[in-house]
Design brief:
Elements: E1 7-15, E2 18-25, H1 31-34, H2 44-59, E3 63-73, E4 84-93, E5 99-107, E6 110-121
């Protein structure tokens, strides 16, 4: 779990399957010692996990990623330059119980990451 360690949720609003949250990345987190020394970059897998954890907070349930239709890493996030980012998630539950999600991480006019995926509830 990255929430509260790697990143913190400063504000979060949820309504009708849309979640907007302001996130702050901890630029001193140990992961940046190896990714990459002297030139930190938020790993793509961490961006995906951040989205998953925000979704789980809103649902109040654990999930598992089952399909990742689109993962677009558009711009690197250097946490020493940009440690505050926005997230937007939109999701709905299909007849089969799967959660269909589109999400993005962005800041002002820069989009860092986009994701279109499906999840199942695991608990």
């Amino acid at each position: 779990m990255l929430t509260g360690k790697f990143f913190h949720i400063k504000t979060m609003q949820s309504q009708d399957g849309t979640i907007d949250a302001l996130l702050q990345i901890d630029a001193s987190h140990k992961i940046f010692e190896g990714h990459f020394p002297g030139q930190p970059v938020v790993p793509g897998v961490c961006m995906m996990q951040m989205i998953k954890e925000i979704l789980e907070m809103d649902l109040g349930k654990k999930t598992q990623l089952t399909v990742a239709d689109q993962l677009k890493f558009l711009t690197v996030i250097d946490p020493t330059q940009t440690n505050s980012i926005q997230s937007e998630l939109k999701y709905s539950t299909g007849e089969d119980g799967r959660i269909h999600l589109t999400a993005q991480l962005y800041n002002e006019a820069v989009t860092y990451f986009k994701m279109k995926a499906s999840f199942i509830v695991t608990d």
